[in-house]
Each structure stands twice: as structure tokens, then as C-alpha cells.
TrEMBL record:
Pfam families: Amidase (PF01425). PANTHER family: GLUTAMYL-TRNA(GLN) AMIDOTRANSFERASE SUBUNIT A, MITOCHONDRIAL, TRANSAMIDASE. Residues 26-451 form the Amidase domain. It comes from Rugamonas apoptosis. This is Amidase. Belongs to the amidase family. It comes from the Bacteria. GO terms for molecular function: catalytic activity.
């Protein structure tokens, strides 16, 4: 069982069906990994083991009597923000330390109905408003590839737990890059669906910048999980009908792909650019015509407008529940947003206006020119400390460049304004200091299958050897100890 930590869900399912693996033994092995990583990576908000072990026994019975479901017996990581009835849900805040979820998020219902076993609750930053993952409640979650560095956020606990080998599937959520940033920094795959593809939680129907989505170590597992999560749910009136994604894809012959490494930003790190170019060469070998286009987007403006829109539809309203007397319990980055909300009402209108302008630019230079997909990096630098504090340290310096510490290093926010665009984050390799790098694969509104087709060919090209030939040091050390 020593290698089970990095076995894909697709393989687990095949071996469960063949009777060569037992769901109970797999869960027990992963629990050991989950407990061991906590001393270094610290990606667990809680472990929910009693119910999980009962579900593993049920999975064993179902395989024996031929009633196994699509994800029967597969352990799953659940982001703390994603509600599971009866599980703690404080949103990493001491202010809400006693809160417990009263009902499941729709995607949890879908996972349970498919036979998956949610058991590992992963960390997120307080109120999910930071691109790293640390809080007063949970401490610092670190990157398994390089412990001093950030695992990203706000789904950083899910990304780190995947990289640490505690389960093959994880949930994430994304309102400014919170799936794509940790997916890229942890070397895994993540999908930000277009709004309406997955059922949202009740009350989030107008929070269109934000969506839930799957995170996995392998491309095939991403398809598997997305096909389970997507589509209507009885509690949602915004979800579109869903046709499952194919499980196999042809090459890219005849496809034209546009790329802009960083929307014209000159501070893109050389190692991220190098890995991106290698990935694009892999797509060319698969038959695609890949050409650079010029996009000159003002990232600072995009970030400011997106954050103002999030304040208007979510953040300010949420922060009103926090009394001034409780402010000392907040992390500095959360309190800064709370204080900002007292300065006056925010508006969603600039987000709508800027989103329309960005789409017109994409149409003029990409979709209207016959390109079917667009690719860019996920961030400008990976030189990000795990405990980076944008309030105390408002500027990040790396290799002669300076970045605004909150979102100034991120290339993800444009596609939260363009929130009907599907965006898939895929790993591209390791940076010079051992942290994974990633790229975003983008398609026009609701064209999910195109981003999966491109990602399938990227995976086949082998441009990234992460979790194939290269594994995080925490795993290598564990294997050495076993040997």
C-alpha cells in the first residue's frame, strides 16, 4: 500500500472493480498519509473519520454485490468553505469558530450520491479572501514541493493535500483564481467552470464571479470528477443542463490556439515563461497551430474592479455580521477588507462594463480571428512565501521585479469577470526553486469541451512530469523511510 497515495481515482476504481484493492484498506492508508503530512504541510482543517470508515465498509459491500456507483469508495478532499452537513464550517475564522454546516452544498450531494468518501477537510484562508493559505485558526499551510513557499489560495489546502497524496480528488472554489492559483502552485489540474455549469449554494445565485470546481492530480480524474459534479440540482435554479464530457480526445489537428504569456506584462518570471513555451511546443506536436496575440490588459484595474464587484454582491454584506469588538480575532487581511467596506457602498456595474470590454478585446483578437482556445500563465511569479502577509508587506520583490502583494502577481482575475468562460489550470513543470508552475487554458463562453481537449493533449505530450517522474520531497522522504 506504500504507493497508494498517488494512485489516480480512475485506477482505484478499476482495481476496486477487479477485486485487487479494498476500499477500506485504501482509506486506512490515506488516513496515515493525511496524519503524517500535518506536521509539515498542515493542509487539514479536520479529519472526519468515523463516517468515512462506515462509507468505506459500504463501498466494500457494494463492490461485492455489484451495486457500485461511479465514484464508489474513492476518498475525497473537501475545502472547508464547501458545506458538508454536520462538519465544522468556520471559514477559518475565530469569530465563527463554533459554526457547523446545516446542509450539504449541492456538489457534496453529488459526490455522496456517486459513492465518494469525503473524509479530509482542507484549509483555506479566513473568509477565502487571500491568495495564500494561512489563518489564526489553522496556521500556515505549506507547499509540499517546497515548504517555505505558498501553496496558493484560497483553495490552497485542497491543492496542498492533493500534492501530499491524501486523496486523488478535491473540491475547490474560485472567485479571483482560488482554484487555478493553488492548482498551478501545487502542480495539479483544476477547472473553473463557467457560472451555471455546477449548482451553486442557495444564496449565491448572483455571485456570478465565483464558482465551485474540481481539482485532481491527473487529467483523467478531472474529467471523471467534473462529470459527477456538473449539472442540475434540486436546490438550484441557475444550473444548465449538462452533457457529460468525453473521456477520450483526439489530437489537435486543425485547431488554432492563441496565447499571450501575461497579457503584455513584462514581469513574468523567466522560469514560468520557459515552462509555458515548452507546453505550447507540446501542443504544436499534437497538430495545433499556436500563435501569439497581443493583449495589453491593465491587471491593476482588472483586480480593483473585480474586488469592488465582489464587495458589492458578497463581501460587504458578509462582513456586516462581524462586530467591531470581534475585529481583534480577525487576520489582518480580513480586517482590512472589513474596514474598507465601511467606506461606502461598492458597485457591480464597473465589473459588468469591464467584462464586456475584455470580451470584445478577446473577440477582436482571438475568437473573431478563428482561434478556438487561448492560453496564458496562471501567475507572474512563484517566489511567494507561505506566510506572505499583504497588509504587513504590501509589495513582493523577486528577481528585480516588484508585485503588489494582494493580487498583483495573479493572472487569473480577468476570467472571473469573464465568468462564463471555462478555464482549466494545467501544470507545466517546476520553477527554478522547485515550486510548480502552471498555465490557464481558456475557451469562449460555455465551450468546456475545447479546454478539456487541449488539456488532454497537453497531458499526453508529457510537458510536465509532475506526479509521473517527479514527486514532492515529502513523498520522497516517506518512501525512503519505508525502504
Amino acid at each position: 500500500m506504500t504507493n497508494i497515495s498517488y494512485t489516480p481515482a480512475t485506477e482505484l476504481l478499476a482495481r476496486f472493480r477487479a477485486g485487487t484493492l479494498d476500499p477500506v484498506a485504501v482509506l486506512d492508508s490515506l488516513i496515515e498519509t493525511a496524519q503524517a503530512q500535518q506536521a509539515t504541510v498542515n493542509s487539514a482543517a479536520s479529519l472526519q473519520l468515523v463516517q468515512a470508515r462506515a462509507m468505506a465498509l459500504e463501498a466494500r459491500r457494494r463492490y461485492a454485490d455489484g451495486t457500485a456507483r461511479p465514484l464508489e469508495g474513492v476518498p475525497v478532499i473537501v475545502k472547508e468553505e464547501t458545506a458538508v452537513k454536520g462538519w465544522p464550517r468556520p471559514l477559518a475564522s475565530l469569530v465563527f469558530k463554533d459554526r457547523v454546516a446545516r446542509e450539504n452544498h449541492p456538489i457534496i450531494d453529488k459526490l455522496l450520491d456517486a459513492g465518494a468518501i469525503p473524509y479530509f477537510q482542507s484549509t483555506n484562508p479566513e473568509f477565502c479572501v487571500l491568495g495564500h493559505t494561512w489563518s489564526k485558526m489553522y496556521g500556515v499551510t505549506r507547499n509540499p514541493w517546497a515548504l517555505d513557499y505558498s501553496c496558493g489560495g484560497s483553495s490552497g489546502g485542497s491543492g496542498a493535500a492533493l500534492a501530499a497524496g491524501v486523496a486523488p480528488l478535491a473540491t475547490g472554489s474560485d472567485m479571483a483564481g482560488s482554484i487555478r492559483l493553488p492548482s498551478s502552485l501545487c502542480g495539479v489540474y483544476g477547472f473553473k467552470p463557467p457560472f451555471g455549469r455546477l449548482a451553486c449554494a442557495a444564496g449565491d445565485e448572483y455571485l456570478v464571479q465565483a464558482v465551485e470546481g474540481p481539482m485532481t492530480r491527473t487529467f483523467d480524474d478531472l474529467v471523471l470528477m467534473q462529470n459527477v459534479l456538473a449539472g442540475p440540482h434540486p436546490s438550484s435554479f441557475t444550473t444548465l443542463p449538462y452533457t457529460p464530457l468525453p473521456t477520450s480526445y483526439g489530437d489537435l489537428k486543425g485547431m488554432r490556439i492563441a496565447y499571450s504569456p501575461a497579457f503584455g506584462n513584462p514581469t513574468l518570471a523567466d522560469d514560468i515563461h520557459r515552462n509555458l513555451m515548452r507546453a505550447l511546443d507540446g501542443l504544436r506536436r499534437a497538430g495545433a497551430v499556436v500563435e501569439e496575440v497581443e493583449l495589453d490588459w491593465d491587471l491593476a484595474e482588472i483586480n480593483a474592479v473585480l474586488l469592488d464587484g465582489l464587495r458589492a454582491v458578497f463581501v460587504d454584506e458578509f462582513m456586516r455580521d462581524i462586530a467591531d469588538a470581534d475585529a481583534d480575532q480577525l487576520c489582518g487581511y480580513a480586517d482590512a477588507i472589513r474596514v474598507q467596506g465601511k467606506g461606502g457602498p461598492a458597485s457591480l456595474i464597473p465589473s459588468a462594463v469591464l467584462g464586456r470590454q475584455l470580451h470584445r478585446d478577446m473577440h477582436d483578437k482571438v475568437w473573431g480571428k478563428g482561434y478556438q482556445a487561448f492560453i496564458c500563465a496562471s501567475m507572474l511569479t512563484t517566489d511567494l512565501p507561505a506566510d506572505q502577509n499583504p497588509v504587513a508587506e504590501p509589495t513582493i520583490e523577486s528577481r528585480g521585479h516588484q508585485y503588489e502583494a494582494n493580487l498583483g502577481w495573479c493572472l487569473t482575475p480577468p476570467f472571473n469577470l469573464l465568468n462564463r468562460y471555462p478555464v482549466l489550470a494545467a501544470p507545466t513543470g517546476l520553477s527554478d526553486h522547485g515550486v510548480p508552475t502552471g498555465m490557464q487554458i481558456v475557451a469562449n463562453a460555455f465551450d468546456d469541451e475545447t479546454v478539456f481537449r487541449v488539456a488532454a493533449n497537453h497531458a499526453k505530450a508529457g510537458s510536465s512530469a509532475l506526479f509521473v517522474e517527479q514527486f514532492p520531497p515529502v513523498y520522497q522522504q516517506a518512501q525512503a523511510a519505508v525502504a
